[in-house]
Amino acid sequence: MLTVLVDGVASGMLLFVLACGLSVTLGLMNFVNLAHGAFGMAGGYLCVVLLNQHGVPFIPAVAAAALFAAALGFVLERTLYRQLYGRDHLDQVLFSIGLVFVMSAVVDWLMGARQQLITLPAWLQGRWDFGFMTVGVYRAFLIAVCGAIVLALHLGLVRTRFGARLRAAVDDAVVARGLGIPVTRIFGVTFALGSGLAGLGGALGVEVLGLDPTFPLKFMVYFLIVVAVGGANTIVGPFLAALLLGVVDVAGKYYVPQVGAFVIYTAMVVLLLVKPHGLLARGAAR
Amino acid sequence: MSAALRFALQALFWGGWAGAYFALPEYLPLLAQIAIIALFVLSLDLLVGYAGFVTLGHAAFFGLGAYAAGILAQQGWGEPISGLLFGAAVAALVGLLTAPLVLRGGDLTGLMVTLGIAMMLFEAANRMAWLTGGADGLQGVEMWEIFGVWRFDLFGRTAFVYSLTVLFLLYLLARLIVSSPFGLALRGIKGNRRRMEALGTPVRARLVAVYTLSAAYAGIAGALLAQTTQFVSLDVLDFHRSADALLMLVLGGMGSLYGAMLGAIVFMVAHHALSELTPQFWQFWIGIALIALAIAGRGGMLGLAGRLLARWGGR
Amino acid sequence: MSTAVLETDGLTRHFGGFTAVDKVSLSLSAGARHALIGPNGAGKTTFVNLLTGALSASAGTVRLLGQDVTALPQHKRIKRGLARTFQINQLFAELTPLEAVSLAIAEREGLSARWWKPLSAHAAIAAEARALLDGLRMPAADAASATAGLPYGRQRLLEIALALALKPRVLLLDEPAAGVPPSESREILDSIAALPREVAVLLIEHDMDLVFRFAERITVLAQGAILAEGEPAAIAADPRVKEAYLGEAAHG
Q: What is the pTM of this model?
C-alpha cells in the first residue's frame, strides 16, 4: 500500500515537472498548446540516444535533454508560436495538433515506433527495504529531484523580479510594454523554461512513463488535467493536482488493471465538471 | 457569385459523384468511404463552422453510431435504414446527455471535456471486448438488403449509392437548417454570444440543440461506415479521427457545407494517393498542413476560390 | 407605483469585497425619459447588467412590468419587454445589418428555434428589418454589407436598431453616442429623440448636453449608490452633484 503511494507520488511529481510549463502557456497565457508533450518527447529521445548510442552518463544526458527541449521550445516560440498569441482557440488547437503530428512523425521515422528502453546507472537501481515498505531507489531520486524543482519554481516565480515581470506581462502585455518590460523576451524565456522542464521530465520519465512516438498524445490528457484542475495562479495548485493524478493513476493500474486508463479520463471529466473554473477563473473575468 | 454560376457549380459537384460511379468502378469502396467522411465533416461543420463551438472529441459520436449500428446488425437485426436511425439515436442521446456537461464551463473547459469524453469512450470500447470486440474489432456484422431489394455487393456499388444518397439527403436537410432562423441564430451565437443573450436568445438551449443535431449526423456517418464495411474497429473513436475531421473542415472552409465536403474529398484522395508511402510521411505532411492553415488563416479552399472568383468577376 | 414599468429595490452587487452597486432603488414609469449619470466607475454599467440579468444581484429585487424578475435569466427578461444597447459595440461582424436585425426580429417573434423553413420564407421579417433600418436612415448599400466594414457611426446606429427590433417596453441605452465623432452623431441623436413615446427609456450617458436635452428626470450615481434624483433643473442646481460629478467635468 505504502509502496503504491510512494510510486504514485513519484510519478505525480514527474507529471508536474512535465506539465508545469503548460500551466503557464495554457493557464496564464491562455494558449491552447496541445503540443506541450512533444517537448517532453524530444527531451526523452535525446536522452535515450545519448545514453544508448553515445555512452553519455545518465546525469549529463538528462541535463542535455532539458537544454535541448528548452532550445527547441525557444526556437519554435520565436518562429511559430508567437504568431498565434491572441488568435482564437481553434487556430491554436490546429497548430499545436499539427506540431504534434510533425514531431511524432519525425521521431517515428528516425527511431521507429517501438518503446524505448534505457538502463539506469547502478547507483539508481535496486530498492531500499525499510521493513514496513520498500522504496525503489530511482523513485526516491525522482521525488528528491522533482521536489527541488518545485521548490525552486515556487520561490522563483513568487519572489524574483522575473516572476513579477512575467505576471505583469501576462496580465496586460500592452501596459507591461509601456512600463519597459521586455514582454516578447519574457514570453520566449518562459516558454523555453517550460519546454526545458518538459524535456527534463520526459528524460527522467523514460523509465517510469515509457517513451514512444505516441507520448505527446497519450499524456496530453494528463497534462491538461494537471492544469485544469490545479488552476493557473500558483505553483501549488497544479502540484497538488499532479500528485493526486499520479497516485490515482498508479493505484488504478495496480488495483484495477482491467479498467486501465478509463479511471483517468473519468476523473478528468468529473473534476472538470466539479471545478470548471479551476482553469478559467481568469478567462471568465474578462 | 451569380445564382446561375452557383447552381452550375453545385450541379457539377453532385454530377461529379454520379460520374465517378461509372468512370471509376474499381474505386467504389473508396468513394463510399469518402462520402461517409464528407458526412462526418459536415456534422462537424454544423457545430464548429456555424455555431462556433470547438470540439476535440467529435469522433465519439462517429464511433457511437458505428458501434450501435454494427452491434445491432451483429445481434441479428441487419435492416440498414433502421440501423442508421438507431446509430443516429444513440449518438444523439449521448450528445443530448453530455451537452450540458460540455457547455458548462468556458470554451477551454469545453475543449477538454469533449476530449475527455471521447477518450473515455475509446477506453470503454477497448475494455468491453465482450460487446465491441475490443482491439480485434467488431466481427460478424451481417447486413440485409436495402428496402429488401439491393444487396451489399462485393464491388461496393450498393455501398456507394447508399452512402451518397444518405449524404445528399442529409446535405439538403443541413442546407435547410442553416438557412432557417435557427441557423441564423447559430451564426449569431458564433459571432457574438453576449449580444445574442441581450436579444433574448436562450443561447445554451440553442447550443444543446445543435450539439445534439451534430452528434446525430456524426452517428449516421459512423453507422454508414459500419454497415458498408461490415466491420467496426476501435479507430472509429480515435483522437486522430477528431483531429483529421477538424483539418478537413478547415481545409475546405468552415461555415459552408460545400467547404466541409470538399475538404473531406481532397483529404481522402490525398491520403489514398500517398498511402503507398510510409504512414509517418503522411502524418508529417498532415501536420505541416495543419500548421500552415492555422497560421495562414481559415478561409480554406472555398475562401480562396471565392477570392479568386471575385477578382475574376471584378475585371 | 402601479405605473412603474421597471423598478429596483435595494439592488446591490458585490465583487469580492468591493460593492459596485449599493442598494439602488430606482423606478421608471411608463414612457419615462430618465437619465442615469455619474462619474466613471460609479457602477452605471454594472447596474444595467443587473437590470438585464447579465449579472446576478447580490441583494435586492428587480421588477419588470409589475413582476419580480430577479430570479429570471437574461433571455426571459428580454422576452418580457426589456432591451439594451452596449457602451462598447456588441455586433455580428460577419452578418449584414439586415441579417442582424432580422435575427433580432426572429428572436422577438419566437422563431429562433424554427429550423424547417428558410428565413427567406418569412417575408414579413425581411420587410420589417428593411423598414426599421430605413427609418434610422441607414443607407441601403450599408444595410446589405458586412457589419465589420461599416463606419463606426453606422455601427452605433445598428446597436440601437438591434434593441429597437425587439420592440421593447423598456429600453436601456448605455452611452449610445460614445466615441462617435460629432459629424456622425446626428443620426444617433435623432433616432433617440424619435423613440416612440410608449417606450420607457433609461439613458446612461456622459454627454451632459444630451442628458439635459433628453431627460425629464435624472438620477445621479456615485460610488455605486444614488447621490441625488430629480428634475434636470434641480439636479443642475444641486451642489452635491456639482461636487461629485459636474465639478469633475468642469475641471476636465
A: 0.89
